[in-house]
Amino acid sequence: MNTLLSVLLCVSLLNSQDQDYYPPSPVPDRIMLNLTESPATSMAVTWRTAVYVNEGYVQYTKASPSPDLLENAQVATAKKTSYLSDRNGANYFSAVLGELEPETLYAYRVGDSTSHWSEWAQFKTAAAGEAPLSFIYFGDAQNDLKSMWSRTIRGAYQEMPKANFMLHAGDLVNRRNRDHEWGEWYYAGGWIYRMMPSIATPGNHEYGRDEEGNYSLSKHWKPTFTLPENGPEGFAETVYFIDYQDTRLISFDAPAFYRSPKDSTIQVNWLREVLKNNDNKWTILTTHYPIYSTKNGRDNDELRNGIQSLLEEYKVDLVLTGHDHAYGRGTNLPIGKGKRATVDGPIYVVSVSGPKMYDVGMDDWMQRGASNTQLYQLVHVDGDLLRFEAYTCLLYTSPSPRDRG
Ligand SMILES: [Fe+2]
Question: What is the pTM of this model?
Answer without folding.
Answer: 0.93
